[in-house]
């Protein structure tokens, strides 16, 4: 099963690119010139995002390094344990919206300590796989166009993350808890 | 954003004072600024590549065809967007995300944002459509969580693919929830 999935996902890109190029050739588009023209914009887009990324990533990393998460952790710990949610999963839940690479790191750590077939690993797999890093997405997407007034965007992102975690807890209870 | 940013930084210093981790905070400050540069520049190559490919798809009329196909659904979610061509960029962003092609999704998403910005009357403030597009992306809808599967498989899970269905259920519900929340809350944030 997993090999089939891997093969399918490995072939998605080549198929899409071939379709676009062949269709372009069919319509007599000057492929090479058109490609390089479009590609020119790529560099400046990345440069434009940079200041926003620096602002967000620095603030989030400082926040994580300062131990402020431990404080949040101590607040949520008792109610979550009452709901039979493993406390190791909590740090991953809090980190999910803040940093993608840190989440993957935590997930790897949890799988290593508790085993890949444990309930907590499956719960964390669902949380990690079903969400995106809200702060990073905001920095990149709004950064490119210079949006500084977010309106409800951040609130929606965080509410959706919280809602996703609750769903993940319910669903993994249903599927995996024995 | 001003206050959230200030909050993150001030709280870091305050809690560093309590936990005695001021050295860690300082080194996080210096290292992560570099990390941000690395991330931004790691996007350059793939950005160029996809923007080039998209330009070809645009010139051949493929994008237009695609956007006509998905217009009914898109005009329902993005009612107030005037330029219908954005629909295809948004749809490509969504499809790439759904297929787990994060590297391809980002350039499409950025392109959608740029198009939406063109019809934005207040250039520093996000429009309703922008917030909805952002909600779609922060919710992170994905058909197959490839990275997670890879980690589980590498750590010797007996049946790693069993998480696909529950993940799909959660990510779908959350995705719909995010769009709804964005639609509801847009009335209260001017």
In short:
The complex is a heterodimer of chains A (178) and B (190). Chain A is mostly helical.
Describe this protein's structure:
The complex is a heterodimer of chains A (about 180) and B (about 190). Chain A is mainly α and about 180 residues long. Chain A has one domain (about 40-175). Chain A contains 8 helices and no strands. Chain B has one domain (about 25-185). The model of chain B has no long low-confidence stretch (mean pLDDT about 90).
Shape of chain B: globular
Radius of gyration of chain A: 21 Å
The residue-averaged pLDDT of chain A reads 87
The structure class of chain A reads: mainly alpha
- Let me know the number of strands of chain B: 0
Topology:
The complex is a heterodimer of chains A (178) and B (190).
Chain A: H1 2-26, H2 31-65, H3 68-82, H4 87-96, H5 100-114, H6 119-129, H7 134-143, H8 153-176
Chain B: H1 2-19, H2 22-59, H3 62-77, H4 86-98, H5 102-118, H6 128-139, H7 146-154, H8 164-185
Helix pairs in contact in B: 2-5, 3-4, 4-5, 5-6, 6-8
Task: Name a few traits of the molecule.
heterodimer; A: 178 residues; mainly alpha; 0% strand; globular; B: 190 residues; 8 helices
